[in-house]
Amino acid sequence: MDYQLTELQLMIKDSCKKIAEERMKPVREHHDETGEFPWDIVKLFADAGLFGISIEEQYGGMGGGIMDNVIAVEELSKVDGGIALSVAATGLGTYPIMIGGTDAQKQKYLPRVAAGTVAAFGLTEASAGSDAGGVRTTAIKDGDHYVINGTKQWITNGGDAEIYTVVALTDKSKGIRGASMFIVDKGTPGFTFGKKENKMGIRASSTRELIFQDCRVHKDNLIGGKEGLGFMHAMKTLDKSRPGVAAQALGIAAGALEEAVRYTRERKQFGKSISSFQGLQFMMADMATQVEAARALVYATARFVDAGAKDISKMSAMCKLFASDVAMSVTTDAVQILGGYGYMKEYPVEKMMRDAKITQIYEGTNQIQREVIALNLIKEAAATKK
Ligand code: COS
């Protein structure tokens, strides 16, 4: 399908494909096995400008949009959704500054990210997963500073990132409306990390706790310079970043489909190529149709957001929901097509199946996406009646 990509998008796609094929493919098994953070590849991403795709030109970025970002994440995830996450989760960590930051905050942090500094987003806690409003971390004003106490859980890029955007309650009595967001630099006294999590998939990506014990952060690091906007900034961030998870899922699915088709052409059983068996042909036809449908929805959503649409929650949730379910289904079928070989680590499809699973869970489980979609449908229906 020709999606009429722009010059910039074609350039991003080509450079990501080159990095993915030439540099990520040879090391993906190593990172999957060891869980080592892929610093060499991150450097290549930085050199290619990938960290700055959607950062405005005045802050050193490419000035692109969500669609440009989606193209990059899809292409990298075809080869390794875990390595690609270093750049995608940096976007997640940076959106709160792009969405709600003051000029000074943008000037201080965005050029660093555009140049390749890894960032992370700190919302989730042990008691605040799907219920993002259940955050317990506090940030209590003390003169020109806020003193942060609490623990964030399962933070992507945690420990390896230099810049963290963190949700904390500045007024506990107000619940969600008392939440604020802060930029916390790695190395700030009182800010440490928990152990690195041992995960099922996306193992090249690091996941750690963020631990705040009397961590003093200057008031200049309160995002937007105003208390009480933290939950809204977090929700708006997720609306913008979910198409990125959808792109990661799409890439993983497309990569698994490619492997499956290639394998059926090479593998011979009963004296002929298994690509000639209708049972497998039908499976591949269904897989390809699902991948293309996911791509169409992800691209349409990204373009909708880039066009400046106001209400993006529903579409953003839809594309994340659909593409991640496609990724799980297509990678599972790819393992089935490769049979015993698919189950072995010599072939990448078992890894793709493990990597796909998280896309149905993080940045809001698919049950939460359905809730977001349904609530928006009801809201829209009520608005039309008026
Ligand atoms: N954009 C802007 N504001 C939003 C918003 C959005 N997308 N979604 C909600 N809000 C605002 C609401 O308008 C409301 O504001 P007021 O109190 O001023 O009216 C406030 O936020 C609370 O909204 P709501 O009552 O819908 O919040 P809930 O606690 O019911 O939570 C869900 C809503 C479930 C959607 C939210 O908790 C969520 O997204 N959970 C999943 C979190 C997640 O993705 N976690 C993964 C962590 S990052 S890897």
Describe this structure in words.
The chain is α+β, with helices and mostly antiparallel strands. It has three domains: 7-118, Butyryl-Coa Dehydrogenase, subunit A, domain 1; 120-231, Butyryl-CoA Dehydrogenase, subunit A, domain 2 (Beta Barrel), CATH 2.40.110; 238-385, Butyryl-CoA Dehydrogenase, subunit A, domain 3, CATH 1.20.140.10. 53% of the residues lie in helices and 15% in strands. The protein has eleven helices and nine strands. A hairpin with a 2-residue loop joins β2 and β3 (145-156). α4 packs antiparallel against α5, α5 (81-100) runs antiparallel to α7 and α9 (313-343) runs antiparallel to α10 (349-359). The protein starts with 6 loop residues before the first helix and ends with a helix. The mean pLDDT is 97. Bound molecules: coenzyme a persulfide.
Report the portion of residues in β strands. 5-15%
Q: What is the approximate shape?
A: globular
CATH topology of the largest domain: Butyryl-CoA Dehydrogenase, subunit A, domain 3
Roughly what percent helix? Answer: 40-55%
- CATH-wise, what's the superfamily of the largest domain? Butyryl-CoA Dehydrogenase, subunit A, domain 3
Radius of gyration: 21 Å
Number of strands: 9
Q: Judging by the overall fold, what is the CATH architecture of the largest domain?
A: Up-down Bundle
Can you give the mean pLDDT? 97
Low-confidence stretches: none
Distance between the termini: 40 Å
Count of helical stretches: 11
In terms of structural class, how would the helical and strand content be classed? alpha+beta
